[in-house]
Amino acid sequence: MQQSIVHIALVVRDYDEAIAFYVGKLGFELLDDTWQPAQDKRWVVVAPPGGVGATLLLAKASKPEQQPFVGNQAGGRVFLFLNTDDFWRDYERLRANDVVFVRDPKEEEYGMVAVFEDLYGNLWDLLQLRPGHAIAARNQHR
To answer: How far apart are CA 14 and CA 91, in angstroms?
Structure first.
């Protein structure tokens, strides 16, 4: 059996400001931005450059009960983990693009990590896993 997670929905306040952040500041690729008239919404999908894993579906909060989740997808915990092949290159590039880091880079047993926040305050790990790490090895087999 082979299964995979294709999209992770990220609740956003506005499609265009979210695209500006994820594409403009993080350097993600805009894979789809399609108007869906039957549902009166856009289907907006972004992904890290060269990524082979799940993509982000930018889902605009369209009901009052969805608004509190913008920026609080994981209740204040790190929500998403952006793995890179060159931690320092991407750390410096993100800082140059005014991405806010809330925890400085740190060497851990699993690799290098620093925590940044997106435009809404969701927390992300920027990390470079050690070559022997189980997840890094799993991704090499794809």
So the answer is: 26
Alpha carbon distance 53, 139 (integer Å): 9
Residues 21-54, buried b or exposed e (16+ Cβ, 10 A)? bbeebbebeeeeeeeeeeeeebebbbbbeeeeee
Using CA atoms, how far apart are residues 128 and 110, in angstroms rounded to an integer? 8
Q: What length does the chain have?
A: 142
| pLDDT, tens only, 44-70 | 999 999 888 899 999 999 999 999 999
Q: How many C-beta atoms lie closer than 10 Å to residue 111's C-beta?
A: 20
Q: What is the pLDDT of residues 7-21, one digit of tens each?
A: 999 999 999 999 999
Q: Is 56 exposed, middle or buried (0-12, 13-18, 19+ CB in 10 A)?
A: buried
pTM strictly above 0.85: yes
Q: Which two tokens stand for residue 58?
A: 């930018």
- The neighbouring-strand residues paired with 35 are 42
> How many angstroms separate the most distant Cα atoms in the chain?
49
